[in-house]
From TrEMBL:
Homodimer. The modification N6-(pyridoxal phosphate)lysine is found at residue 245. Coiled coil: none annotated. NCBIfam families: kynureninase. Catalyzes the cleavage of L-kynurenine (L-Kyn) and L-3-hydroxykynurenine (L-3OHKyn) into anthranilic acid (AA) and 3-hydroxyanthranilic acid (3-OHAA), respectively. It comes from Fulvivirga lutea. This is Kynureninase. It is an enzyme of class 3 (hydrolase). Keywords: Hydrolase, Pyridine nucleotide biosynthesis, Pyridoxal phosphate. One of its GO terms (molecular function) is pyridoxal phosphate binding. Pathway: Cofactor biosynthesis; NAD(+) biosynthesis; quinolinate from L-kynurenine: step 2/3; Amino-acid degradation; L-kynurenine degradation; L-alanine and anthranilate from L-kynurenine: step 1/1. InterPro entries: Kynureninase (IPR010111), PyrdxlP-dep_Trfase (IPR015424), PyrdxlP-dep_Trfase_major (IPR015421), PyrdxlP-dep_Trfase_small (IPR015422).
Length: 422
């Protein structure tokens, strides 16, 4: 990679960036009178300027129409709201429209998916997952296991990196799945690991889960809107994600699920039901007897959270316009530039734990700064960088292609260099 270590060069890259206009479509937080270097789009994406209008349209329809807004809203009739996000989301996760729906929140959806895809028997009862998964996922899995009367220590198999390594090798994941074979009920991984930034090989993990007769599911909280996903072709049974990280849909925003087409009409799968998953044509007959909608829609419980979905829609339109391919291309350039600059510091104190092989990372770099990590982090914050400190020792930075610049990356590097006296 022939990048250069000058501010002029960073500005030149910005100038040539085909997506450069998108930054102005977002509100950038200001610190001490200056636009911050916002590197936490992996935690809470920034607000698109169009979000306000989408929300106001819903408020207006509610104000003017009351309940009539369900079918006669001037802008987007609420009854159909989940359909407005469907095609855009399908594109983003590499799925067919029938396989996705936006609904609820992430951890709730993870539970709903496990209701369907974790049905332990005496022989087949284990869940294999990455060690150090996001705590909410750990709690969800443990409580599901206990709900079925099993012991987490016996039913949950966590995979950790080899000693001296920071991230998992796909071959090791596959070996563990094989080793546990017919006792595995579910293999549940994140798409991009929140702590290390590692993008797992969804396709290989899915195939080896299927080889031993287990289901494969993925938590894509840090993958959606970040890396290229091919959920349908990967064969994964289910996935779920949130919309407030890379998808910029606002704090606590509506989540989404993917259920593979092969389960679209699978009546063998148990599920928790609600009226919004019931056959749409019959829904208002208010009759007994649940008839699930085909595909992911059949997992819906409640009527759509319209305000949150409006914010979601505003953001998804930007993704559609910018194009996933262009976003991915800029993203890898930004992240590669950041890695290049950090490596040029040639310091034993800095260790980037995010893998560097193509296809094994997204926007985020997880940087361990030995000895004085927290102190360096605090200095960065003072200098106007919004990054993320994760215990025990990692600074996570995620330059995102929609609104971050090469200049942001360069300035971050200069501040870090100065702070560490390198
Ligand atoms: C962000 C994140 C969550 C958060 O869950 P919510 O239900 O949206 O609060 C859960 N799991 C992972 C892996 C995450 O990255």
């Amino acid at each position: 990679m022939d990048f250069k270590i000058t501010e002029e060069y960073a500005l030149e890259l910005d100038n040539k960036d085909p997506l450069k206009e998108y930054r102005s479509q977002f509100h950038i937080p200001v610190i001490n009178g200056k636009e911050s270097i916002y590197f936490t789009g992996n935690s809470l994406g920034l607000q698109p300027k169009t979000t306000k209008q989408y929300l106001e349209e819903e408020l207006e329809d509610w104000k003017n129409l009351g309940v009539e807004g369900h079918f006669h809203a001037k802008h987007r009739p609420w009854f159909h709201y989940h359909k407005f996000t469907k095609v855009l989301l399908a594109e983003i996760v590499g799925a067919k429209p029938i396989e996705v729906v936006s609904m609820n929140n992430l951890t709730s959806n993870l539970h709903l998916m496990m209701v369907s895809f974790y049905q332990p028997t005496n022989k087949r009862y284990k869940i294999i997952m990455e060690g150090g998964a996001f705590p909410s996922d750990q709690y969800a899995v443990e409580s599901q296991v206990k709900f079925h009367g099993l012991k987490p220590s016996e039913a949950i198999v966590e995979i950790f990196p080899r000693s001296g390594e920071d991230t998992l090798r796909t071959e090791d994941i596959i070996d563990v799945i094989k080793e546990h074979g017919g006792s595995v009920a579910l293999v549940l991984f994140s798409g991009v690991q929140y702590y290390t930034g590692q993008y797992f090989d969804i396709r290989s993990i899915t195939s080896s889960a299927h080889e031993v007769g287990a289901f494969a599911g993925f938590d894509l909280a840090h993958a959606v809107g970040n890396v290229k996903l091919d959920l349908h072709d990967s064969g994964a049974d289910f996935a779920t994600w949130c919309s407030y990280k890379y998808l910029n849909s606002g704090p606590g925003g509506v989540s989404g699920i993917f259920v593979h087409e092969r389960h679209a009409n699978n009546s063998e799968l148990p599920r928790f039901a609600g009226w919004w998953g019931h056959d749409e044509g019959q829904r208002f007959k208010m009759e007994k007897g649940f008839i699930p909608m085909e595909g992911a829609d059949g997992w819906q419980l409640s009527n759509v959270n319209v305000l949150s979905s409006a914010a979601h829609l505003a953001s998804l339109k930007i993704f559609e316009e910018a194009g996933l391919e262009a976003l991915r291309k800029k993203s890898s350039q930004l992240t590669n530039y950041l890695r290049y600059l950090l490596k040029s510091l040639n310091s034993d104190l800095i260790n980037i734990i995010t893998p560097d092989s193509e296809g094994a990372y997204g926007c985020q770099l997880s940087i361990v700064i030995k000895e004085k990590g927290k102190k360096v982090f605090d200095e960065l914050t003072k200098a106007g960088v919004i990054a993320d400190w994760r215990e025990p020792e990692v600074i996570r930075v995620a330059p995102v292609p929609l609104y971050n610049t090469f200049k942001d990356v360069y300035t971050f590097y200069s501040i870090l260099k100065k702070t560490m006296n390198l």
